[in-house]
Amino acid sequence: FDLSAQADSVGPVIALAGLAGIAGLARLLLMAPYVDVLGVIIAAIAIGVAALALVGLAAYTLTLPLLAPAMMCEASDCIDAVQRIVAYAIYRPLKTILYTGLLWVMTAVIWWLAQQAAAFGFDLSTWISGIITRRAADDLSVPAAWLSVWAIRAVLLTPYAIGLSVLFSGGAAAYLALREACDGQDRSDLAPL
After folding, report:
1. Mean pLDDT of 178-183
2. pLDDT confidence of residue 8
3. Which of 4-13, 50-59, 117-126 has the lowest average pLDDT?
4. Contact 164, 108 (CB under 8 A)
5. Whether 101 contacts 191, CB under 8 Å
6. pLDDT of residue 1
7. SS3 sequence, the chain?
8. Average confidence (pLDDT) over 126-143
């Protein structure tokens, strides 16, 4: 049983609990008549820490599709990969926003197109399943009706699969392009596994 592995996963929860505790302490001090100035100082510190946490969360969210490629291309652990991609977001924000922003926009457009195709597929599959269901009612074939229901569900889940596929496979291309633009490493320069 390794406590360091549990400390890594519980660390953000402890940080949030500490931030909430500081904010709660500031609230209590603001209600007290003579120590309200101390409450203002602690509240200002809590707001500053929360602002830093918000910037870190925004940087992490922006670079989320780059996490898996950073781990695979550099043959590193998750913590090193997070540090690498957040460092890109902090030290090269315009390039990071450009590469990952284009990735997010491309994913949204392809997901929307997949949604439109799925809506057409849904209409088509409901029309076909109506024919199958009428025939199934005549033939008393329950598996045919069951199969048509699952085919409709598969059609409705397809855009999500396409969107995630584009996001994370495009994340690999974006990470390699960002690494080449920021660090000058060639795209074929990958760590051996």
Report:
1. 87
2. 53
3. 4-13
4. no
5. no
6. 45
7. CCHHHHHHHHHHHHHHHHHHHHHHHHHHHHHCCCCHHHHHHHHHHHHHHHHHHHHHHHHHHHCHHHHHHHHHHHCCCHHHHHHHHHHHHHHCHHHHHHHHHHHHHHHHHHHHHHHHHHHHHHHHHHHHHHHHHHHHHHHCCHHHHHHHHHHHHHHHHHHHHHHHHHHHHHHHHHHHHHHHHHHCCCCCCCCCC
8. 62
